[in-house]
Amino acid sequence: MAETTATNGIHVLNVEDGEANHKTNQESSSFCVSVPFMQKVFAEVLGTYFVIFAGCGSVVVNLVSDNKVTFPGISIIWGLVVMVMIYSVGHISGAHFNPAVTIAFAVTKRFPLKQVPAYVGAQILGSTLAAGTLRLIFNGPQNHFAGTMPSGTPFQSFVIEFIITFYLMFVVSGVATDNRAIGELAGLAVGATVLLNVMCTGPISGASMNPARSIGPAIVSGHFKDLWVYIFGPTLGAVSGALVYNLIRFTDKPLREITKSGSFLRGVGRK
């Protein structure tokens, strides 16, 4: 039994013969060509915007409402919004929403290097617009809208950001690039990982795991102190997580290719 994956990463079909396999690949190629690159970039802007708006919005609302959202509630919101947006636009852009993820896919040759600047720019733009929207809606103190700031030492936060982003990218690599994983659960697995990381390490480092998540609010608030922690920690962690998963992978089947969209999703919506 052969397994095929559409070039935009959202369709997978188990077929019994090579003819069906060839047909599916033809459909996949035509679908990929029909989606302009700017659509993917715009999907990254929108996806990152809604992730940051919901996630950071829950933090701001919690601050201005005397902790009515609660920290567990914030953790759940981050996990849910990531999951929802992966299922929403994963078939269009790949649902990276994170420069560290995009760079890690590029380093492991699962995403075109020449598309990295556009994706990273789109993610930072989406994050900045979301942070700006929150700043316009709420009139709280300026520090309500600051980027991720460590409550521990910068070194402590750097190590934590490295580890939790390593963990996140390790999970992403498993559910998105391994033939043996259940692709339909990719969004759920990634969202749950984000929830767990925020729950476990949020009080110390802020659990950014995403340079765009920290850069956008930092630009809006003008607070850039220790921003390097949230740029280099997650990026190095994501690249390391992807490389380590490739080292431990063992299969006699061809590796799943993350195509130009670098999608997390496969196996959804096939008719």
From TrEMBL:
Signal peptide: none annotated. It is found in: Membrane. GO terms for molecular function: channel activity. The keyword Cell membrane does not apply. It is a multi-pass membrane protein. The keyword Nucleus does not apply. Keywords: Membrane, Transmembrane, Transmembrane helix, Transport. One of its GO terms (cellular component) is membrane. InterPro entries: Aquaporin-like (IPR023271), Aquaporin_transptr (IPR034294), MIP (IPR000425), MIP_CS (IPR022357). The chain crosses the membrane at residues 46-64, 76-97, 118-138, 158-176, 188-207, 227-248. CDD domains: MIP (cd00333). PROSITE patterns: MIP. NCBIfam families: MIP. Belongs to the MIP/aquaporin (TC 1.A.8) family. This is Uncharacterized protein.
